Amino acid sequence: MFTDFFYLLRKKGVPVAVTEWISFIEALYNGYFQSSLNHLYYIGRAFLVKSEAFYDMFDEAFQEYFGGIKTDPVDLDKVLEWLENPVHKLPKMSPEEMAEFQQKLEEFKKEHDMEELMKQFRERLKEQKERHDGGGKWIGTGGTSPFGAYGYHPGGIRVGGESWMQSASKVAEERRFKNYRNDIILDVRQTKMALKKLRELKREGSEEELDIDQTIEKTAKEGGEIELVFNKSRENSVRLILLMDTGGSMWPYSELCERLFSAATQMEHFKEFKYYFFHNCIYQDVYEDISNYKRVPTEKLFSNFHSGYKVVFVGDARMAYSELFDVNGIIDYYSTNDKPGLEWLMKIKQHFPHSVWLNPTHKNYWGHYTVDTISKVFPMFELTLDGLKDAVKSLISRPKPMGQIQS
Amino acid sequence: MATTTQGYQGSDNYIASKPLMEIVNVSVALGKPLVIKGEPGTGKTLLAHSIAGALNKKLIIWNIKSTTKAKDGLYVYDTVQRLNDARFKDKDISDIRQYIKLGRLGQAFTSDEQLILLIDEIDKADVEFPNDLLNELDEMSFHIPELDEEVRAKHRPVVIITSNSEKELPDAFLRRCIFHYIEFPDQEMMERIVKVHYPDIENKLMREAIKKFYWIREVEGLRKKPSTSELIDWIKVLALGGISIDKISSEIPFLGALLKTEQDTGRFVRLSNAQGGGGFRKRF
After folding, report:
1. A174 pLDDT exceeds 60?
2. Pair (B197, B158) in one structural domain
3. pTM for the full model?
4. Per-residue pLDDT tens for B84-111?
5. Domain shared by B96 and B173, yes or no
6. A309 and chain B: CB distance < 8 Å anywhere?
7. Distance separating alpha carbons of residues A186 and A385, to the nearest angstrom
8. Range of the domain at B215
9. The last residue of a domain, from among B182, B211, B234
10. Phi, psi of B158 (to 5 degrees)
11. Would the pLDDT of A115 be above 80?
């Protein structure tokens, strides 16, 4: 039964495993979906999709697969019922009542033109919405969902929120979960999550953890005289230096970079965290504070920080040829550089082997000679959540040597 | 057979969306753990309380901390106590059983009735933590080597797991669970939630406050968006302060209850002034 849907989900990038698909099919056969598209959408999603990051892809697949089913019988009933019953009650119906309702419905349909009815419905809905905003009754949801988002449950129990009466394909069509996709956005919290993986646990600090094995061994050696042994607790020993490009071409990405920056500064996760700025490329100085041009000699980084520090560059790596390869190629009119930028970058890589470059531009635009050259010095990753994760992975694994550079 | 129209249907003090209710019922029926994710303040933890109340079952809460180990949930063998007792020789220490203390999971397994087990904020623990529980949650049993005994669940507990997505949960673990992401409530839903907290609140005041709340949430670049609990607090302050509705619509009194950091307040004021909001400067 719809195995195509399984492959479609996988094609769209939802990592559905076979075991999940089987549980889903089992649930389907056991009648948990009550042959309703709504159930299929919500409960199916609960079985098949295990992160909100994939909800949007699920929506896409669902829309493609089930989108053709425009008339959802469940919804149509409710629409008509709503028309009959403006107070918006949804009483539970017995079969007799249902039959009566069906009959009424038929009569109703005979008397009214369906198209006219839908038009009326939309108008009434519009009216309702205005009334709601004006502070009257609250019927129908404001905003996007055309069929109203909730109904009362007979037991006086509250139901609501995620649009149930709205057809599932409509929900899928709205694609409300677009913003949760990993490959698009990068918010501060997610960035923190990704950066959290950047850790190397070492025992440091005061001794406060009881080491049971050692205690037993020592005690046994002492012939039963208890000897408690304490250990230092484990702490993250990662020391991080962030070097951020504030050059003109970085302007469009300033907010993105700001998010990364605030995530890193807010975290208190690292043993040590330092940050410096630069314009386009690094030469003999970096800036501690870009607003008042407070400089720090780049050499100082080498003398102050040992090679265990991890270095993360953030920049588009896009600059004029001369800025990277030439003496005095520096973009700042009043400055000179006696060593080309590339030489400085290579020096940094040699001193800090654990270093990566995060590029806020899309990979498709990396085909530029300076980007290409720099990506040979530092492993380069996109500044997206996925890219950041890969960068973190690269930082904690054994560093890669530099590639061959031709100039 | 599925009887999804019965079973869990929300409770008086908790508003569950229809899809969520159905998902809870399916997970109870299938005996699969339910993983709930969502922004802070979307009622993840409360859900378990509500289910316990609605199904009239006892709730056991296992609060996860960064130091929690999977084994802590099964049982703890208090070796230090035994060592201590051995030293003073005033107790019979030959029975290890008295030093084995069951953890939350162990308690849920050995209970004579079916329980609701809430594993709260599972993402706080080590990345490997959920994987260490795979077998226990799958088989609903574990082995105590010290006693050479098998603890098997008399009644499969209903397992609700919440996560704030601080860490991602391992795939192998998620594959065995049912997953639901609670969306941030929309305005209508929020009205109901507020009503649950303050049944007597004036409708107009509540609506105006909620409108403003959503407006603030939409301001770009806030470090921490105000969540439901902040709104609830804010409305309380507004009501206690006797703030008039006009005032709420023209300025934002007690903004501090909604935005908790200086940067956010600054950013908000800057942006709202830039948008010609004019009136916000007066009072914070």
Report:
1. yes
2. no
3. 0.59
4. 888 777 778 788 888 899 999 999 999 9
5. yes
6. no
7. 6
8. 187-274
9. B182
10. -80, 115
11. no
Query: Is A311 within the bounds of a domain?
Result: yes
Q: Give yes or no for residue A144 having a pLDDT over 60.
A: no
For range A226-238, the mean pLDDT:
78
Q: What number is the ipTM of this complex?
A: 0.78
Q: What angle do CA A93, A95, A98 make, to 5 degrees?
A: 60
Question: Which residue in A85, A87, A80 sits closest to A106, CA to CA?
Answer: A80
Which B residues in the span 78-97 are in contact with A, Cβ-Cβ below 8 Å? 79-80, 83-84, 86-87
Mean pLDDT score of chain B: 82
Same domain flag for A2 and A136: yes
CB pairs under 8 A between A and B: 137
Shared domain check, A157 and A110: yes
User: Which chain A residues are Cβ-neighbours of B72 within 8 angstroms?
Assistant: none
Contact residues, chain B, for A46 at CB < 8 Å: 23, 26-27, 178-180
Collect all residues of chain A within an 8 Å Cβ-Cβ radius of residue B207.
135
Closest B-chain CA to A160: B17
Instruction: Inform me whether the C-beta atom of residue A55 falls under 8 Å from chain B C-beta atoms.
Output: yes
Residues A215 and A262 in one domain: no
The DSSP letter of residue B279 is: T
When divided into structural domains, chain B yields a total of 2
Q: Do the Cβ atoms of B131 and B173 come closer than 8 Å?
A: yes
Contact residues on chain B for A235, CB-CB shorter than 8 A = none
Cβ-contact B80, B125 below 8 angstroms: no
Distance from CA of B45 to the nearest CA of A (A): 18
Among A41-45, A69-73, A185-189, B25-29, the minimum mean pLDDT is found in: A69-73
Q: How far is CA A357 from the centre of its chain?
A: 20
- Closest CB from A143, A224, A258 relative to B86: A224
Same domain? A65 vs A81: yes
- Rounded to the nearest 10 degrees, how much is the dihedral formed by the CA atoms of A132, A135, A138, A142? 40
Same domain, B128 and B164: yes
Number of domains chain A is built from = 3
Give the best residue of A16, A50, A200 to mutate against chain B (max B CB count within 10 A). Answer: A50
Residue A72 CB partners (closer than 8 Å, separation 6+): A36, A37, A38, A167, A168, A169
Q: What pLDDT does residue A143 have? A: 29
Residue B95 lies in a domain: yes
Residues B108 and B56 in one domain: yes
Domain extent, residue A152, equals: 1-181
Are A282 and A335 part of one and the same domain? Answer: yes
Q: B186 in contact with A at a CB cutoff of 8 Å?
A: yes
Do A67 and A152 belong together in one domain?
A: yes
Which residues 138-167 of B are in CB contact (within 8 Å) with A? Answer: 165-167
